[in-house]
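Why should sequence recovery work at all? Because a backbone constrains its sequence more than one might expect. Tight turns favour small or flexible residues, buried strands favour hydrophobic ones, and helices have their own preferences. The token representation captures these environments compactly. In the example below, the structure is given first.
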């Protein structure tokens, strides 16, 4: 497969690292929110890690978006139907919106929390991370944090559903269309 028909190594690295981090975040988020009250110490530790990985995803996603805007991706296969190309573009735009929006929502959640002043965020226990300033002076921060939490969780699960759609599309290209589309995003992809 010609190099012009593949994503760059940087784009491939961003894709796979962010994908694995997001899947880990969703699994970790579901696990930590399911912990009982007597597991409070473990929950706090997991929340700190969740915040750290969330900010990491946010920063990597912003870098990935910058890379994407300055480096043209390979063209979609010519045999794709117009609805498939439209769905592919909408899916990619949705992924970018979620990769940036979900971590921002998590940051807003932490910042709006009534515990924001008593539980500072340190990325990986080392780097202090500020809270967003817009929530100062809000009286019922607990209710606001709960609303943001619901939205954050909904869009995290939306990301998981979009992952599923993405995997189905990959399988379709591999087994129905029998094309090399998957090789564009695999490290060291080779032609069939």
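From this structural description, the recovered sequence reads:
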């Amino acid at each position: 497969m010609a190099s012009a028909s593949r994503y760059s190594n940087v784009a491939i690295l961003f894709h796979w690292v962010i994908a694995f981090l997001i899947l880990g975040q969703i699994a970790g988020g579901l696990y930590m929110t399911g912990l009982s009250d007597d597991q409070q110490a473990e929950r706090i530790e997991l929340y700190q890690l969740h915040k750290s990985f969330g900010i990491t995803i946010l920063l990597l996603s912003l870098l990935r978006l910058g890379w994407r805007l300055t480096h043209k991706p390979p063209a979609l296969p010519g045999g794709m139907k117009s609805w498939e190309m439209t769905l592919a573009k909408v899916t990619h735009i949705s992924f970018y919106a979620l990769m940036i929006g979900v971590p921002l929502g998590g940051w807003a959640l932490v910042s709006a929390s009534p515990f924001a002043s008593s539980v500072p965020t340190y990325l990986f226990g080392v780097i202090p991370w500020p809270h967003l300033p817009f929530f100062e002076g809000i009286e019922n921060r607990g209710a606001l944090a709960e609303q943001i939490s619901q939205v954050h969780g909904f869009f995290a699960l939306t990301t998981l559903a979009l992952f599923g759609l993405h995997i189905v599309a990959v399988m379709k290209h591999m087994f129905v269309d029998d094309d090399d589309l998957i090789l564009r995003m695999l490290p060291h992809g080779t032609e069939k």
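A few observations help interpret the result. The beta strands are 121-123, 127-129.
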